[in-house]
Design brief:
Blueprint lengths: L2 H13 L25 E12 L3 E14 L2 E11 L5 E13 L9 E11 L4 E14 L2 E14 L2 E15 L6 E9 L2 E15 L2 E12 L6 E11 L1
Antiparallel strand pairs: 1-2, 1-12, 2-3, 3-4, 4-5, 5-6, 6-7, 7-8, 8-9, 9-10, 10-11, 11-12
């Protein structure tokens, strides 16, 4: 199968697979790469702003991570969201583990696994997820696909399983400038839009990674735009 056909087939599979969504309505998030750097430490900040015809949401996420093995990294997050008074309050806490299953370039596709456990104090719920991250390079471009299986339960929500898909197709122009197209899929949600990311290497393992994306929802007629930003400092 040639490269355009492979990309087209992948996106078609995602679009016609049954889709589900988080109970809090957030589908757009980070597209994970399947890699872990040995002995890495990192600080991470994310921002998500979502606007619809009736809702204007703003959330921030702060993380501290460390690789506990050559191919396994752990990260702890504090998630805050703006309340109806316009103040930010801590609404959730999350523990994440990333496991690099294959070495980069070892096989035709690079594989990784992601496990997350989140405690949401604002709605008194617990959410556990397991996902796969797959990446393939085509000369100067890369295709990254995430698939997550999620289980959540809480006093104010029904206990249920959900799934989510994320796709990023990027052009590796130079390390600091890598434009991309991102696609997110969930129940009653299909969003797509432009994104850009970059890596600025400082010295040794010290580097700064940044990402930005603007996703427009396609499955409903009303306005639904999401802006996402993230910055990571690895050392």
């Amino acid at each position: 199968m040639n490269k355009p056909s492979l990309l087209f087939a992948t996106i078609c599979i995602l679009m016609f697979t049954p889709r589900y969504v988080f109970a809090d309505g957030i589908v757009v998030d980070k597209v994970y790469h399947p890699y872990v750097i040995a002995n890495e430490k990192e600080f991470e900040w994310r921002l998500m702003s979502s606007q619809t015809d009736t809702i204007n949401r703003l959330a921030q996420q702060f993380g501290l991570g460390y690789s506990i093995a050559e191919n396994v990294a752990m990260e702890f997050y504090v998630i805050g969201e703006r309340n109806e008074l316009g103040d930010f309050t801590a609404s959730a806490f999350e523990l994440e583990a990333r496991w690099m299953l294959t070495e980069q370039g070892q096989f035709a596709f690079d594989w990784g696994a992601i496990f997350e456990l989140e405690r949401n104090t604002s709605v008194n719920s617990i959410e556990a997820s397991a996902g796969l991250a797959v990446e393939k390079e085509f000369e100067k471009t890369s295709l990254t696909v995430n698939w997550f299986l999620i289980y959540e339960q809480g006093s104010q929500i029904d206990s249920e399983f959900e799934t989510e898909f994320r796709v990023k197709y990027r052009y590796r122009y130079i390390p600091e400038i890598q434009p991309a197209i991102e696609l997110y899929s969930g129940e009653d949600y299909l969003g797509i839009g432009p994104a850009i990311m970059g890596v600025h290497r400082i010295e040794g393992q010290r580097q700064i990674k940044w990402e930005a994306g603007f996703i427009t929802e396609l499955s409903n007629k009303g306005k639904d735009h999401t802006l996402r930003l993230s910055v990571e400092y690895e050392f």
